[in-house]
Amino acid sequence: MKKIICAFLIIWTLPFAAFAAGRIAEIWTQPAVYKADEPVSWFFDVTGTDLEGLTTGVYMWTWFPSEPDKDHWANSSEFAALTYVEGNIWRFDLTPTEYYGVEASSITAFYGLLKNKDGSKSTDAFAPDQDPPNDIRMYSLSTIQGSALIDYYPKVFTTDRPLSVLINAHNTWSGCETTAVQGDLANASNVHMHGGVNLWDIVVENNAANLDKTELASLGDGVYRMDLILDDYFALPDGYDLKNINMVFADDTWSHMGKDQSCADFMISMTEEPIAELKFFPQKISRKDILVISRKNNESYVTSLTYTITAETAVLTGSFEGDAEEFKAYIDLVTGLKGLNPAKINVVIKDNTGRVITDTDIPLVVLQ
Amino acid sequence: MRKTNYYLLFLLLFMAFPQGCELTDDGTYTAPITLYERIGGTWAMSSLTQVDEVAKVNDLTPVEEALTNKFTFKSFKIALHVDSLFQPTTYEVTGTAPELFATSGYWQLDEPFVHADQTASNILLYSDEARTQLTDKLTVLTIPGTKAVLDFSLTRMDNGSPFVSYVYKLKSAN
Question: Under an 8 A CB cutoff, do B54 and A283 touch?
Answer without folding.
Answer: yes
